[in-house]
From TrEMBL:
<keyword id="KW-0472">Membrane</keyword>
<dbReference type="InterPro" id="IPR002123">
    <property type="entry name" value="Plipid/glycerol_acylTrfase"/>
</dbReference>
<dbReference type="Pfam" id="PF01553">
    <property type="entry name" value="Acyltransferase"/>
</dbReference>
<feature type="transmembrane region" description="Helical">
    <location>
        <begin position="12"/>
        <end position="32"/>
    </location>
</feature>
<keyword id="KW-0812">Transmembrane</keyword>
<protein>
    <recommendedName>
        <fullName>Phospholipid/glycerol acyltransferase domain-containing protein</fullName>
    </recommendedName>
</protein>
<keyword id="KW-1133">Transmembrane helix</keyword>
<comment type="pathway">
    <text>Lipid metabolism.</text>
</comment>
<keyword id="KW-0808">Transferase</keyword>
<feature type="domain" description="Phospholipid/glycerol acyltransferase">
    <location>
        <begin position="73"/>
        <end position="187"/>
    </location>
</feature>
<keyword id="KW-0012">Acyltransferase</keyword>
Length: 246
């Protein structure tokens, strides 16, 4: 059954994504209007979550949404799977996600993500990546949008202790936004980008941090609290249920 779910979902993903070739062409002719493109990107993400729920049996719940302010903020989240990258397009509809350049190379989807717009950085050029992240971050905040960053820089396993890249401290200091740490346990169900196990992903929004904290206080309030929250799931980080290779 796991293999059937796996290939059925992959087929659904391909067909659902192909349907967006028509709006892509229309938006391209219309000059790539940002707001309709963001709406279409959210619709695509909702469709993927729908497929995960009804084909794979993978759902999600949110905890602590009361910590999200009404004004723009900086979401700092751990990264275990492709799930949170697309899910946050739905969970926080107008969010600007800091993402690696490779993400926008995905056919069809990449065109929409680049123009949503996300904050696309080239990790191979560290100094330029930081400059781009700060400049585009300021533009997003000026437009009333929140920002999401995965400070680990790549996906990590549930069993691994978090280690944030220092760029997140710089972004925090330059933007002056309140911070919402977020713990996600998606690696239990979608490791390596392959939907392998039905269940319920938990998105836990933790206590908000004020802007202007010291570097040490910021790191303690983000990296350490997210790491402690992940301890809720680490004893079962290697499920024995049926899986499918990526």
């Amino acid at each position: 059954m796991a293999r059937i779910r796996h290939y059925s979902f992959n087929g659904y993903w391909a067909v659902w994504t192909a349907l967006f070739l028509v709006p892509l062409a229309l938006f391209a002719v219309a000059g790539a209007p940002a707001r309709p493109i963001r709406a279409a990107t959210r619709l695509w993400a909702r469709g993927i979550l729908f497929g995960l729920r009804h084909i794979v049996g993978l759902n999600y719940v949110e905890e602590g949404r009361e910590h999200i302010p009404s004004e723009p903020c900086l979401f700092v989240a751990n990264h275990q799977s492709a799930w949170e990258t697309l899910a946050f397009l739905v969970l926080v509809p107008d969010v600007a996600i800091v993402a690696k350049r490779e993400l926008v190379a995905i056919p069809v989807v990449g065109w929409f993500l680049r123009r949503s717009p996300m904050i696309i950085i080239d990790r191979s050029n560290g100094r330029e990546a930081l400059r781009t992240m700060i400049e585009m971050g300021r533009e997003a905040v000026a437009a009333g949008r929140s920002i999401l960053i995965f400070p680990e820089g790549t996906r990590g396993a549930m069993s691994e202790q978090l280690q944030f890249k220092r760029g997140v401290e710089l972004l925090y200091g330059k933007l002056g936004l309140p911070v919402v740490p977020v713990a996600v346990n998606s690696g239990l169900y979608w490791p390596g980008g392959s939907a392998t196990r039905p269940g319920t992903i938990v998105v836990s929004y933790l206590a908000r941090l004020a802007p202007g904290l010291s570097s040490a206080a910021f790191m303690q309030g983000t990296e350490r609290v997210i790491d402690r929250e992940l301890d809720r799931w680490r004893p079962v980080s290697r499920p024995v249920a049926e899986t499918v290779d990526a």
